[in-house]
Protein: Aminoacyl-tRNA hydrolase
Amino acid sequence: MYIIVGLGNPGKQYAHTRHNVGFDTIDVLAERYGISVDAKKHKALYGKGIVEGNRVVLAKPQTFMNLSGESVRELIDFYKIDETEELIVIYDDISLEPGQLRLRAKGSAGGHNGIKNIIAHLGGQAFKRVKVGVGEKPKGYDLADYVLSRFSKAEREKVDVSLERAADAVVKILTDNMEAAMNEYNKKVEG
Structure:
């Protein structure tokens, strides 16, 4: 079984902001595979289903970004999975342009507070990640304000494509392996 967690903030005011691309990717997967992500438990909205023959839990932590680890820890403990093999976390990355993806099998938080909190709750950095580019913070902007902002129309078009690609990358991890997914999706997308 795999637990696929998309990071974001709950509430309508945060819907479709830069920080919520993880939630948006979970929505893409849920729609594609007919999984309802509406059960409430483990400090998350979640749903169980099958993706290409693999049992999955799709989850959107409801703790707010900076406490995402609380929900992830509860999910791992409840489903008794090996987080190094069966956990995939999808989240925003300001060091990548809108439309770009970066997959990693492990690594530091890179300044992302949601990932910092997950690492703190798991006690390690070895879990699979799908990072979705949201663009670099413009000079003079406050980081919190920036990641909670919405995309421009041109950025949104690129991001919508990258959400589909992020969902494809998750499927590739499930059906092939992390290395194959990294080889395919870590390439820079032109445009």
